[in-house]
Amino acid sequence: MTALPSYRPRVHPLWWARRRAYLVFVLRELTSVFVAWSAAYLVLLARAALAGDAEYAEFRAFAGSPWVVALNVVALAATAFHSVTFLNLAPRAMVVRLDGWRVPGFLIAGGNHSAWLAVSALVAYLVLRS
Amino acid sequence: MITLQVSRYRPGQDAEPVFQDYEVPLRSDWAVLDGLAHIKDHLDGTLSFRWSCRMGICGSCGMTVNGEPRLTCGTFLTDYGEGPIRVEPLRGFPVIRDLVVDIDDVLAKLAHVKPWLIREGEELPLTAEYTQTPAQLEAYKQYSMCINCMLCYSACPVYALEPDFLGPAAIALAQRYNLDSRDQGDRFDLLATDEGVWGCTFVGECTSACPKHVDPAEAIQRYKLTAALTSVRNLLPWGRS
Amino acid sequence: MIFDVLIVGGGGAGLRAAIAVVEADPGLKVAIVSKVYPMRSHTVSAEGGAAGVIGEGDTLDEHAYDTISGGDWLCDQDAVEAFVAEAPRELIRLEHWGCPWSREPDGRVAVRPFGGMKRMRTWFAADKTGFHLLHTLFQTSLRHQEIQRYDEWYATRLIVDDGRVHGVVAMDIRTGAIEALAARTVILATGGCGRAFPFTTNAAIKTGDGMSLAYRAGVPLKDMEFVQYHPTGLPFTGILITEAARAEGGWLINKDGYRYLQDYDLGVPTPTPKLRSMELGPRDRLSQAYVREVERGRTAETPYGQVVYLDLRHLGEARIEARIPFVRELCRSYQNLDPVTDLIPVRPVVHYMMGGVHTDIDGATPIRGLYAAGETACVSINGANRLGSNSLPECLVFGARAGAAAAREAREAPAAGERAVRAQGADERRRLEHERDRRDGGAERIADIREQMQETLEEAAGIYRTRDALDKAANRIAELRERAAAARLDDHSTAFNTEMVAALELSSMLDVAETIVACALNREESRGAHQRSDFPARDDGRFLAHSLAYRGADGGPRVELLPVTITRWPPGERVYGR
């Protein structure tokens, strides 16, 4: 007796829109593009600053144009989203034991967030002090 | 009474699944599985589904309940208010009949990761056990709790899109032995592959779906770290042992 | 293709047997036919532990004595001696295969007290011992690729010719295909048949299939009247609350908060558990005490019958979490209460069959080449009442013994009788296809007949029995059998036809039910789990003997007696708490 066919469900193209968790995941993956842009922007800034005043002024004009400002606002939001969701996942990859006691996830995530805030504050202090 | 909208697929008869509605008594201590058993016993003997222990340990009765992968023995009718409750087979698997899915692929994957204790050299005689402290037991205990219910595979979009992906339970099972102080095996070649841990994009839904708190997502991410360190060590001239 | 060893059932005993076969001779062709994937087998539900002498100050003789007195002297003592000697080795073997046994701080395996045991000798993996044991066996079996598996195949008939087994006929549940599988030896390891009763800890799959297969082939079923009621099941679901809950210090109290076991010759209450006393008495005595409490009106009324309470509150959250976390998980998920703060309502629930397929100490049945092991079998080490934590090691010890014996036999056995395989295979295929296609059945459903059978057994063959009730039940079951043969099937399809499987299971359970009632009628005494209100005393003169139920020429059971093997422990009084 040959087996009757089993039904193989197809994956819907919008599968990621159907669950909040999948949507958050896909957004997190998409925000990588903005993380990459932020890195590229920083490299351009550093190059311009090192190349001399004329180059730097030209870069400032570019950076001040409305669409770049808009893009960077979006990039900031996206990068922040990426960082927060990434750090929230950190406890899953790190199991920390102190004298047999397993450090709970929220402390690990909290520690990561705190470190992130501390570094950001230090950078802000260095930049804004002048 | 409450309505169960049950997915029916009768091979040879249905080209694709269709829903059929059944009215079952709404009792406070009835699980969805009790509702299905009531249908089978009293309303429609043709409905097929798997179940056995009805105490959340045999792993047979996983289904999709209102869109979520659940063990139906531990999911209660009253959790869904007035209903209706939609009961479908686990997603991500071929459907054999009604609520019964084909899990042979996952079974092969479980076997693939060498889920047994690997020892080198002489075995101890049968008069003495390998010692293992409670802390050493604790190191892998959580990963030994998997009941193979397949809910994690059903929740994993990677498995749905890439059927070759080894998947959550298989990798967690490998970690169960990797982290066992008695095990001397090496599963690097099985796990550190594109179909293995690197296939995981860390959606994290496997862990949310797991009814036994195995946390397969954690198992996978932890092995990624192990695999990365091992790979780096293997690249260094003095790192290879 | 002829298998050397074909095992029906993939639980603890079946998997252990399969591994024993490949260990004995990797060249042998071995297969497991199981109606569920092996890791779904009911071994998975065992909670409390597995007994094996390991601790200092314990001896094999003490384990043997506890087992024999617990079984009310109906155990075969040579079998018990072999069992207690091999149990520790088997448990250590499991440890070597990776079983996550709970440990002492120094890293050695921990043991806990258990009901009816004089010493601490019960190994445990928290309170999921059966789960871990089964998964360890299953995963270890994956290492042996020569073990061929027929997952979700339902065996419906033994092929027997000329006093020798030649294989089985089985249905592939997924496709409906019916095939004759030829084999030199067959091991039955299908577990018990608690589902023949209305209220049971047993999983849906526990329908006495292996017992029925053997019985129909002419093998007697032994000691079927001994049905164990576990004293602590959750009302409605019948979910088991492990004896370990009492071993860790839990109390049984009635509706007045009184530890009622002190009124039933089980000792005096102490704050901490005392071995072989009070809550750590044997299961039969505890379940019988419940019935007496109901009669005295000291139990609490619930929609699912009278209950007493299991009190764990004084143990505290930390101990409950560390030692019996599954108890808490089950109470929270299925009873909506927390044992840390609430009383657990419990009542006795059908848990285990002491009886089963008649075998010798190697699992061999009277049919050449046919073996049985685990709950399906009756060797007998459990006598009239099994002690908690003896059944898991029984699966291992006698699974291994049956596997080794079958491997030996397979090397010498002639090739399976091809003609018998073909003829009986074709015959069975015709029968099953006819069953499946039957459209002209009456109005009755399988489930209705099943429910009536369950109620009949509960009424007549429950904790206390009488001749009148048993007589009525015997007639009723014969009548139900006729009605079952004419029942209606809604489902005539081939793919995963679970209604067809349910019909076949019902017919297995009716076989088992018939032998339970016949053996209970025949045994005019009270011993262990078999309590006759009309014969309240043990009668060693007449009944220090096993019941053997044969299938008679008319299809009904015929009961004979077989003397118990006594080696070193003459029958005595069962003393608990004194």
TrEMBL record, chain A:
<feature type="transmembrane region" description="Helical">
    <location>
        <begin position="103"/>
        <end position="128"/>
    </location>
</feature>
<protein>
    <submittedName>
        <fullName>Fumarate reductase subunit C</fullName>
    </submittedName>
</protein>
<dbReference type="GO" id="GO:0016020">
    <property type="term" value="C:membrane"/>
</dbReference>
<keyword id="KW-0472">Membrane</keyword>
<keyword id="KW-1003">Cell membrane</keyword>
<keyword id="KW-1133">Transmembrane helix</keyword>
<keyword id="KW-0812">Transmembrane</keyword>
<dbReference type="Pfam" id="PF02300">
    <property type="entry name" value="Fumarate_red_C"/>
</dbReference>
<dbReference type="InterPro" id="IPR034804">
    <property type="entry name" value="SQR/QFR_C/D"/>
</dbReference>
<feature type="transmembrane region" description="Helical">
    <location>
        <begin position="66"/>
        <end position="91"/>
    </location>
</feature>
<feature type="transmembrane region" description="Helical">
    <location>
        <begin position="21"/>
        <end position="46"/>
    </location>
</feature>
<dbReference type="InterPro" id="IPR003510">
    <property type="entry name" value="Fumarate_red_C"/>
</dbReference>
From TrEMBL, chain B:
<dbReference type="GO" id="GO:0051539">
    <property type="term" value="F:4 iron, 4 sulfur cluster binding"/>
</dbReference>
<keyword id="KW-0479">Metal-binding</keyword>
<protein>
    <recommendedName>
        <fullName>Fumarate reductase iron-sulfur subunit</fullName>
        <ecNumber>1.3.5.1</ecNumber>
    </recommendedName>
</protein>
<dbReference type="GO" id="GO:0009055">
    <property type="term" value="F:electron transfer activity"/>
</dbReference>
<feature type="domain" description="4Fe-4S ferredoxin-type">
    <location>
        <begin position="137"/>
        <end position="166"/>
    </location>
</feature>
<keyword id="KW-0001">2Fe-2S</keyword>
<dbReference type="InterPro" id="IPR017900">
    <property type="entry name" value="4Fe4S_Fe_S_CS"/>
</dbReference>
<dbReference type="GO" id="GO:0051538">
    <property type="term" value="F:3 iron, 4 sulfur cluster binding"/>
</dbReference>
<dbReference type="InterPro" id="IPR004489">
    <property type="entry name" value="Succ_DH/fum_Rdtase_Fe-S"/>
</dbReference>
<keyword id="KW-0003">3Fe-4S</keyword>
<dbReference type="GO" id="GO:0008177">
    <property type="term" value="F:succinate dehydrogenase (quinone) activity"/>
</dbReference>
<keyword id="KW-0411">Iron-sulfur</keyword>
<dbReference type="GO" id="GO:0046872">
    <property type="term" value="F:metal ion binding"/>
</dbReference>
<dbReference type="InterPro" id="IPR050573">
    <property type="entry name" value="SDH/FRD_Iron-Sulfur"/>
</dbReference>
<dbReference type="GO" id="GO:0006099">
    <property type="term" value="P:tricarboxylic acid cycle"/>
</dbReference>
Automatic annotation (TrEMBL), chain C:
<dbReference type="InterPro" id="IPR036188">
    <property type="entry name" value="FAD/NAD-bd_sf"/>
</dbReference>
<feature type="binding site">
    <location>
        <position position="375"/>
    </location>
    <ligand>
        <name>FAD</name>
    </ligand>
</feature>
<feature type="binding site">
    <location>
        <position position="230"/>
    </location>
    <ligand>
        <name>substrate</name>
    </ligand>
</feature>
<keyword id="KW-0813">Transport</keyword>
<feature type="domain" description="FAD-dependent oxidoreductase 2 FAD-binding">
    <location>
        <begin position="4"/>
        <end position="392"/>
    </location>
</feature>
<dbReference type="InterPro" id="IPR015939">
    <property type="entry name" value="Fum_Rdtase/Succ_DH_flav-like_C"/>
</dbReference>
<keyword id="KW-0175">Coiled coil</keyword>
<keyword id="KW-0547">Nucleotide-binding</keyword>
<dbReference type="GO" id="GO:0033765">
    <property type="term" value="F:steroid dehydrogenase activity, acting on the CH-CH group of donors"/>
</dbReference>
<feature type="domain" description="Fumarate reductase/succinate dehydrogenase flavoprotein-like C-terminal">
    <location>
        <begin position="450"/>
        <end position="576"/>
    </location>
</feature>
<dbReference type="GO" id="GO:0009061">
    <property type="term" value="P:anaerobic respiration"/>
</dbReference>
<dbReference type="GO" id="GO:0022900">
    <property type="term" value="P:electron transport chain"/>
</dbReference>
<keyword id="KW-0274">FAD</keyword>
<comment type="similarity">
    <text>Belongs to the FAD-dependent oxidoreductase 2 family. FRD/SDH subfamily.</text>
</comment>
<feature type="binding site">
    <location>
        <begin position="34"/>
        <end position="49"/>
    </location>
    <ligand>
        <name>FAD</name>
    </ligand>
</feature>
